[in-house]
Amino acid sequence: MADIAQLKKIATQVRRDILRQVHQVNSGHPGGSLGCTDFFVALYFEILKHDPNFSMEGKGQDLFFLSNGHISPVWYSVLARSGYFPVEELATFRKLNSRLQGHPATHEGLPGIRVASGSLGQGISVALGAALGKKLDGDDQLIYCLTGDGELQEGQIWEAVMFGAHHKVDNIIVTVDYNGQQIDGPTKEVMDLGDLEAKWKAFGWEVMSMDGNDIEDVIQTITKAKAKTGQGVPIVIIMKTEMGMGVDYMMGTHAWHGKAPNDELLEKGLAQLEETLGDYPIK
Amino acid sequence: MLDNYNQTDKKSTRDGFGAGVYELGKSHPEVVALCADLIGSLKIQKFIDEWPERFFQVGIAEANMMGLAAGLATTGKIPYTSTFANFSTGRVYDQIRQSIAYSHKNVKICASHAGLTLGEDGATHQILEDIGMMKMLPGMTVINPCDYNQTKAATIAIADFDGPVYLRFGRPGWPVFMPADTPFEIGKAVHMNEGSDVSIFATGHLVWYAVEAAKQLVSEGVSVDLINIHTIKPLDEEAVLASVRKTGCAVSAEEHQRNGGLGESISSLLSEKHPAPMNFVAVNDSFGESGTSIELLDKYGLGIKDIINAAKAAMAKK
Fold first, then answer.
1. What's the gap in Å between the CA of B182 and the closest CA on chain A?
2. Which residues does chain A have within 8 Å of residue B91's beta carbon, measured at their own beta carbons?
3. Tag placement on chain A: N or C end, fewer CB within 10 Å?
4. pLDDT value, residue A1
5. In angstroms, how far is the first alpha carbon of chain A from the final one?
6. Do A119 and B94 touch (CB under 8 A)?
7. pLDDT below 50 — which residues of chain B?
């Protein structure tokens, strides 16, 4: 049984890590990172069978792929807080000679990352390939993938979605971060995604939904999704989130998609987030 | 040495690929194949019949195929993607760049129907820029074998090499002339004839034309150093420099744009390490068109006579 109170404590610390990372280099993507924090914390601290003693192939483990790589600050924080690398390394985010590149990469050997992402629309394809690999190996663990909603505008996504159903890739759970925002504005205005649930269903996927900012709902829904794997149908969860969740001035707008807070706004944001596990030192 | 290279058969390089993949099916259980609706063209039916669980039909969705391959490689498989060269490179450049090259995935990108010799389908399918695109990617190995035997050997050799590879081959029936027992070593050029007047560096289908051109030049009293460059990247720099130090001039021959091709790699090396006159047999900033393979090679300046003329022109500049 999950200790929800403890997970919530971790989540506020992760949100602090996100703000402090992007503030220090005056760049990066806090909005989507904050929106997906509860999902990441639930995933890494409750759901995934994983080993911080990282191996690329991850045999016998669940594998997670992030398609919308720009929300790297939340992933880096959760990986560090799970023991993949020292928490102090978060202070190197986006700096020269860092393993914490602006967008996640394998090139510098950061533990926990299995493929580079940033150029959008590629993650589901890679995740499906890993799922096929698991099946060939008779490895019963699952593949998880998170995509943004804006990136569903990429054509490759739908190539992958069609493939997943046709080949009955039923050891994968894709989650869509449905925050309704992208760089140029609300998705409804930039390029309306229409009825997402109907689209995925029409492509042959089992569609579920959850509140991505409710850790209990995330855990319960993914637990239900796991029970539906192995039945010849790939699974997608449309996850409603609020971009900027936890920091009042970043919520309800796309303005903080890819912008860092200044000194004053950093303090204002941190004041809303309890320091529960200890901030990493700024060098 | 030239006497060792005579036509023994006529088979396509893509048939060599299919035969190589079938051998790998037996020897390398971690090899898997993907195809984007071109099984017949890529000659991989035998592999599919024997190991259906190790083959994935992707449909007409090449971007997805590259991502799938990256994911399969992540779990320790050795994926061979297969489609036309055009759809293996330009169409999916960003997927290869991010998910495969930058991510160091052990994916073999196998590309048929490269170049003008694709023939009647015309310029939409005759990619002549692929070597350039692929050699620019950091960490990408680029191989363009010359006949059935060398393509089969290359297909097998790249399975034991850890890293992304672009393997380029073609459609037409083409002379088979490399002895089947010629060892294939990635990055190691094959020295086909010893000579002192001019170096000819050829890759892909044009190696056969270079053999024919060399035979004629030799009959005219020209001493030709002939080198088969199957691996364009990493280039066998020692072989190139050793040859040009002897001959003092060079010719490159390839079924590709001059911009971005083998000749460009050689001239870049020579200009830095051993400046020497050079001529290029390549397509000169142009698209192709419909026609037969032979007609197209002639029209676009890639014929046997073009190699001979280039060799004489290079010697005249010494």
1. 34
2. none
3. N
4. 64
5. 38
6. yes
7. none
Residue B141 to chain A, least CA–CA distance (Å): 17
For domain B190-316, which CATH number applies: 3.20.20.140, 3.40.50.920, 3.30.70.980, 3.40.50.1000?
Answer: 3.40.50.920
Inspect the interface and report whether the beta carbons of A129 and B61 lie closer than 8 Å.
no
Which residues of A fall within a CB distance of 8 Å from B28? none
- CA–CA gap between residue B57 and residue B67 (Å, rounded): 14
Rounded to an integer, what distance in angstroms lies between the CA atom of residue B243 and that of residue B237?
10
ipTM of the complex: 0.97
Chain segment A144-200, per-residue pLDDT in tens: 999 999 999 999 999 999 999 999 999 999 999 999 999 999 999 999 999 999 999
Place of tokens 């699952």: A142
Q: What pTM was estimated for this model as a whole?
A: 0.97
Tokens of B32: 């898997």
A126: contact with B, CB 8 A cutoff: yes
Domains B2-176 and B190-316 alike in fold: yes
Q: B71 and A116: CB-CB below 8 Å?
A: no
Strand (E) or helix (H) holding A157:
helix A155-166
Closest CA–CA distance from residue B139 to any residue of chain A (Å): 11
Which pair of structure tokens corresponds to residue A101? 């590149």
User: Which residue ranges make up each domain of chain A?
Assistant: 4-270
Residue range B169-225, pLDDT digits in tens:
999 999 999 999 999 999 999 999 999 999 999 999 999 999 999 999 999 999 999
Contacts of B73 in chain A (CB under 8 A): 129
Q: Domains of chain B: which residue ranges?
A: 2-176, 190-316
CATH number of the domain at A4-270, please?
3.40.50.970
Please state, rounded to an integer, the average pLDDT across all residues of chain A: 97
pLDDT band (50, 70, 90) for residue A283: confident
CATH topology of domain B2-176: Rossmann fold (3.40.50)
Closest CA to B21 of B135, B157, B193: B157
A140 part of contact set with chain B, CB < 8 Å? no
Q: Are B145 and B190 in contact (CB under 8 A)?
A: no
Catalytically active residues of B are: 62
Q: Reply yes or no: is the peptide bond before residue B145 cis, omega within 30 of 0.
A: no
- Give the tens place of pLDDT for each residue, A42-57: 999 999 999 999 999 9
What is the DSSP secondary structure assignment for residue A200, as one 8-state letter? H
Percent of chain B with pLDDT over 90: 100
Cα A209 to Cα A227: distance, rounded to the nearest angstrom = 15
B contacts of A137 (beta carbons < 8 Å): 75-76
Size of interface A-B (CB pairs under 8 A): 122
